Target: Monocopper oxidase-like protein SKU5
Amino acid sequence: MLLVETEGSYTIQQNYTNMDIHVGQSYSFLVTMNQSPLNDFYVVASGRFVGDANIRDKATGVAVLHYTNSQGPVIGPLPNGPDEDMYISMTQAKSVRWNLSSGAARPNPQGSFKYREIPVTDVFILVNKPTQLIGGKWRRSINGISYLAPTTPLSLARHFNIPGVFKLDFPNRIITTRTPKLDTSLINATYKGFMEIIFQNNNTNIESYHMDGYAFFVVGMEFGIWNENSRNGYNMLNAVARCTTQVFPGSWTAILVSLDNAGIWNLRSENLNSWYLGQEVYISVVNSKLAKRNELSLPDNSFFCGELSDLQKETKDDGSTSHKHTYSAGTTKTKMSLIDYIVKFAFLYLIFLSMIGWSF
Model:
């Protein structure tokens, strides 16, 4: 299989007999049909590092590669997968590199493809641990914080300046003296900054992290604990740009990302059980020069909840909507906008003119 692309980035073209594709990742391969057409061939996708053979067998996907001039059906047992050696898997992952000779478009932070020359503005070491009791419930965490989803959406809370919904105090490294907690704590990032993030996996299973809104450079991964000297082994020439990366057990993965996309972006574990249990964090990237008048207005069908539930529109049977306010007594009252008042006044004024004999 000739690897040519991963997650929007053209790669150095190399042949592989197998490829470890981690949760949330995607790859593109070219396969040359040059084998003998004596019979069909198996194509197998099987689980890796699962441990339980029964689960692995149930998660195995099988396809048949059929030549139009094939002389017989596929024969024999399914081919065995590669050895479950994480060192070999990591070596394979580091062999996936950017194709700098390709003419395709590439991320262009600060006007340069040479990301090694871009100064780093923020460094975050994100440490995850095995499931633990936090607030009386089994939870997962990053830097000792298990994400607590607020009742008011983050972007709406910022748009309407609602206080107390979230805090911009996520620690840039784990605080070992602090008890793990549930919290709505966001990373306060610098707009157009260049952030270094190190994922430290202190769990026994492979993690896979995805970042919304961005592609990042995967510059390094090794077994052990990350330290300042680990940067000496970074690939600062042709690291691939992607949005999802794996972190092996007892190892670290380092990424560099150019924060040129304003918004509140989710960084999460792609393992659904870990994500559900709170192993995620949001990154706030604010462009202070962007005025609200330059932003697109909220769509009419926006959903409001939490502190903004009184702005929620009531959907009628005919599909139209009307604003409503909910009061403690449980009653609702229609809220008229300025345009509603103008239209109503104009209508009454026309009636008045018709009553005094004006013609139209």
